Amino acid sequence: MEERSVQKVLILGAGFAGLYTALHLDRLLEKDAPVEITLVDQNHFHLFTPLLHEAASGVIHPGLIMTPIRRLLRKTRVQFLRARVEAVDLSARQVTLCCLALPYDILVIALGSVTHFYNLDSIRSRALEIKSASDAERLRCHVINRFEAATRERNPTRRRRLLTFTVVGGGCTGVETVTELHEFLHHLQAEQYPMIPREEIRTVLVERQDRVLPQMDRTLSRMALQRMRKMGIEVLLNTTVRDWTEESLIFAGEHPPFPTDTVIWAAGVRAPPVVAALPVEKDSLGRAVVDAYLRIPRFPNVYVLGDAAHTRHPQTGEVYPPTAQVAYRQAPVAAANIAADIRGDSPRVFDFTYIGDLVSMGRLSGVADPFGHRLRGFPAWTMWKFYYLLRLVGWQNRLRVALNWLLALLFPAQSAISYECSPECAGELCL
Ligand SMILES: Cc1cc2nc3c(=O)[nH]c(=O)nc-3n(C[C@H](O)[C@H](O)[C@H](O)COP(=O)(O)OP(=O)(O)OC[C@H]3O[C@@H](n4cnc5c(N)ncnc54)[C@H](O)[C@@H]3O)c2cc1C
């Protein structure tokens, strides 16, 4: 009898693109197909990023957006390996992990993105990010430490610096973060820090372009701006950050610096170093350029998906944005194409029409442009809630998050930190 050789499919990254490619591929292949599927991630959980800002403010518990990968794979043939990917050798068809080298026949690179700091070292070394579950907890800890320090600080200039919270980047992540943070700060002041005058707390959003949410239409951008200003958030447009000293945040051009002890950097993403190092065509963000089938043209056995890929709509030529929506939609196409590679069938083109953005803006408000329709306020917020509730992985998580949302409407958010949040010491200030 003829021996069928086993095809090794290796998937790097268990985010929206990688995890769902593994799940779809398992379903598409016959149970006895001679295929080994291995999924690799540095974390043991899949992170649902669209709700990360709510985890930062305590509206939902961070554990609810982290689903153990092994639980999701338990009824599949997919093997999981928790390891950090260090390099990919496309010619040798081999991936180097921290402690071993793995060969592959078909490779899927879905390693997401890293924060883009635009070579601003002062920002890279001190700014907070909002990319991971630990970033969300760190942000809450940081805020509480600033409030604690402000209760002891008698110098008004230093107190102002402690109580000025700045988010840089007016895209979806920046807008969702600043609005959620603003509500969290005011809730915290009212609940636990009445000795801090409310008007001393300053929330600022800095955006380089002439409007927030530049990917949406101008009317929705204007509505979002009005909503933030009505909430009391200062929004600085046409303002580019140049440096952040111990004292102040410094801008290019005319805008005067202002003192702030908190910068949350949400000003963009770029490809992770493993992808940026690939010897293939890349864009200015280091993302690998893929063809209409999501493969690297010179290496048709290698797929790059999600934030790590530069993908264009095959008809319009528009570059897809780095969103979970796109990564999630690429997964079934990549899985179908891998199954087709294995069977010797023709691949499918990825031609998904982007349905638009949904942006939450704090309690009961948001903006959205599903299929070109403009929504704002409560309808947009409701749509955002339902959409992401349905996208969460598993009924257990959906039910728990829905209960958390309900509780957050009835009671104040949970502000205590579930891990050790120690006071930090910086110079004379013990924060
Ligand atoms: C705060 C925030 C809010 C967002 N909100 C939305 C939203 O509302 N809607 C939306 O559509 N998009 C949203 N996004 C964008 C969305 O999260 C990304 O576009 C999406 O996660 C990309 O999917 P991906 O599979 O490419 O990467 P990811 O989901 O980031 O997955 C990458 C995986 O690779 C793993 N990994 C990375 N490097 C290594 C390595 N060297 N070794 C091993 N494993 C590694 C990571 O642990 C991760 O599990 C948001 C992003 C953030 C940060």
Please write out the topology:
Blueprint: E1 7-12, H1 16-28, E2 35-41, E3 45-47, H2 52-57, E4 66-68, H3 69-73, E5 79-82, E6 85-89, E7 94-97, E8 101-103, E9 106-109, E10 114-115, H4 121-126, H5 133-152, H6 156-162, E11 164-168, H7 172-192, E12 202-206, H8 218-231, E13 234-236, E14 241-244, E15 248-251, E16 258-259, E17 262-265, E18 269-270, H9 273-276, E19 288-289, E20 295-296, E21 299-304, E22 309-310, H10 324-343, E23 358-360, E24 366-368, E25 375-376, H11 377-391, H12 395-410, E26 425-426, E27 429-430
Parallel strand pairs: 1-2, 1-9, 2-5, 9-21, 11-12, 11-17, 12-13, 19-22
Antiparallel strand pairs: 3-4, 6-7, 7-8, 10-18, 14-15, 15-16, 20-21, 23-24, 24-25, 26-27
Flavin-adenine dinucleotide is lined by residues 13-18, 40-43, 49-50, 52-53, 84-85, 110-112, 130-131, 172-173, 272, 274, 306-308, 322-325, 327.
Q: How far is the first residue's CA from the last residue's CA?
A: 72 Å
CATH T-level fold name of the largest domain? FAD/NAD(P)-binding domain
Q: Helix/strand/pairing class, anyone?
A: alpha/beta
Q: What is the oligomeric state here?
A: single chain
Radius of gyration: 23 Å
- Spatial ordering of strands, largest sheet: 5-2-1-9-21-20
Poorly predicted runs of 5 or more residues? none
Helical residue percent?
25-40%
* The CATH class of the largest domain: Alpha Beta
